[in-house]
Design goal:
The chain contains three helices and four strands. By secondary structure, it is an alpha+beta fold. The radius of gyration is 13 Å and the shape is globular.
Length: about 100
């Protein structure tokens, strides 16, 4: 029930990140979203590694495999947590 209540808000917020130049694709279902980033310096995986470090330093751990990241807030999250997650994403990804 909790995931169903938060899903639309979460997905809308994550898909809003598609306006960032380095985001090449976003997909999601429920409280799970995948974000693909453009390779850095023509080297696949380099941006994902760099982004992992930058996001961690900003207070968020995201699993990247290559340049594809997966995020899934916990079921105890509410809208303010979703807003915080997407704000950290926007600030960090906007630095590229």
């Amino acid at each position: 029930e909790r995931a169903a209540e938060l899903s639309a808000c979460f997905l809308d917020s994550v898909f809003a990140l598609s306006d960032l130049p380095i985001v090449t694709d976003i997909r999601g279902y429920g409280l799970l979203a995948g974000i693909d980033l453009a390779p850095m310096d023509g080297k696949p995986g380099l941006r994902g590694l760099d982004c992992t470090k930058r996001l961690f330093n900003a207070g968020m751990h995201i699993k990247f495999t290559g340049d594809a990241g997966i995020t899934a807030p916990p079921l105890i999250a509410d809208k303010k947590h979703v807003d915080e997650i997407c704000a950290i994403f926007r600030k960090t990804l906007g630095q590229y």
